[in-house]
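Fig. S4 source data, part A: sequence.
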Amino acid sequence: MTSSRLTLTGHTNWVYALAFSPDGKTLASAGWDQIIRVWDISTGRLRATLKGHTAEVYCLAFSPDGNTLASGSHDNTIRLWEVETLEPRGELKGHANVVQSLAYSSDGRYLASGGYDKTARLWSAANDQPLAEFSGHAQDIYALRFSADHRKLVSIAADSAVKIWDSATTKSLTEIAGHARWVHCGAVAPKLDRIATGYGDFDKQRAATVGEVVIRNLPDGAITDRLHGHENWVYALAYDHTGERLASGGWDGSVIIRQLPGGKVIRKISAHKDIVLATTFSPDGKLLATAGYDQVVRVWDALY
C-alpha cells in the first residue's frame, strides 16, 4: 500500500464522510461509529470528537466562512457545530430518512440537504429555519451543489438521474434521465458544467464487475467520458476546486486522480486495505483525503 502524508486513526467503524475547512487547516471525518472527528492537518493531531448523532453519519460540510460544520445522519437529522468552540449549535429536522448529502451556497446564506427520502431541502443558514422542499426524484439523493449565484441547485440521485432546480421557486428547470440502473456516488463540478457518477458494470469478457465513472455535460446530459481503472464498484467521487481534476475511490481500495476532460490518469494510489467510501480535495487542490471500510483516514499529496 502506498505511503500517505498523514494517517489518521481513531474511528471504530466505516468512515463515510470527509470535509476540509475553507482555509484547508482542518479536516472533519465521520461515519458509522456516529462520531465526528476534527483533525489539525498541519500536525495530524485530533482536535476534538463531536458526539450527538444517534446513528451513522453520512455527510459533512463546512460553511464558507468556516464558522459552522454541518453533519447529516441516519438519525434523519442535520446537526450544526460551532467550529471555534467545537460545541453543538443546532439541529435541523425534516427529512424522513437518511441525510446523505449537504451543500452550502457560496455566500453562506443557504444550506441544502438531500436524503434517502428522495427529497432535497433548503435551510436558512442565518436562523436554521426550513425554506423549501424539492420533490421529484425517484431514488435517494447522493450529491448536491449550488451555482455560484445560488439561484440553481443541482441534485444527483441513486438512479443517476439529475435535476437542476430553481432554488427560489423549487421548480425543476432541467431533468436528465439516468444512464444506469444504480450508482453509488455522484459529484457536481464547481461551474455546474459537468457531473460524474460512479458505479460498476459486469464485463462479460472478464466475467467480473468493473468500475466505471461516467462524465456528463450539463445541462444537456451528454456523456463525454467513460473512465475505467477500478477493479470493482466506484464508491467515492470528488472534483477539485477547478473542476479539472476528479478523484475516484473504489471497492478495490484504490484511488485514481484524473485530468479532465479526457480522464488522463495523473496518479493511481493503493490507498486502503478495503473499500474507499469517501474522498475530498483540500480547497487549494494540493491535498486529497480518503477514507473507508478500514476505519482509517489518509491524506495524500494531490499534486504529483
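Fig. S4 source data, part B ends here. The longest strand covers residues 194-203.
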